[in-house]
Specification:
The protein is an alpha+beta fold. It folds into 2 domains: about 70 residues, 2,3-Dihydroxybiphenyl 1,2-Dioxygenase, domain 1 (Roll), CATH 3.10.180.10; about 50 residues, 2,3-Dihydroxybiphenyl 1,2-Dioxygenase, domain 1 (Roll). It has 2 helices and 8 strands. It has an 8-stranded mixed sheet, with helices on one face. A hairpin with a 3-residue loop joins β6 and β7. The radius of gyration is 19 Å and the shape is globular. The termini are far apart. The mean pLDDT is about 85.
């Protein structure tokens, strides 16, 4: 007797998915922005120095681990960068974690996106680069630093 297997009976092959791990938004006045998000949503902000581009980290979770990452699944933290005239596409965007930034840059280009420049190292965080997707959205990818 011949056994038949339906396609619906087969278990799907798990494919690696790169998760959204961070959001970014531009800010003209970081103190004003920090006050707004703290007052409106209870977020905690941390002002970074010039060595980190005056970036502002935003903690959106009530409970975080030792590294500042949210303990509850599905919650992400983010940050604000200083809005300047010399950077393209300064709009809210997301950061996607990847295992290999160079391979992911190639995948972005192959899929029709346009990588903006070369990856830069964010000390203690990882390698980071932005790209435009096929719809003109600025999105970023990050290869986290190994701990």
């Amino acid at each position: 007797m011949k056994s038949s297997t339906k396609a619906s009976d087969k278990k799907p092959v798990a494919k690696k998915i790169d998760p959204v791990v961070h959001f970014e938004m531009p800010a003209e006045d970081r103190k004003r922005m920090a006050k707004f998000y703290t007052s409106a949503f209870g977020w905690q902000t941390q002002m970074m120095g010039e060595d980190m581009g005056n970036y502002v980290l935003a903690t959106t979770a009530a409970e975080v681990d030792k590294s500042g990452r949210p303990k509850k699944r599905g919650i992400i933290n983010g940050g604000f960068y200083t809005k300047t005239d010399d950077m393209p596409a300064q709009y809210p965007s997301v950061v996607i974690a990847v295992d290999d930034i160079k391979k992911s840059m190639n995948k972005v280009a192959k899929a029709g996106g346009k990588v903006i420049g070369e990856p830069m190292e964010i000390p203690g965080v990882g390698m980071y680069v932005s790209f435009f997707d096929t719809e003109g959205n600025r999105v970023s990818i990050m290869q986290p630093a190994m701990k």
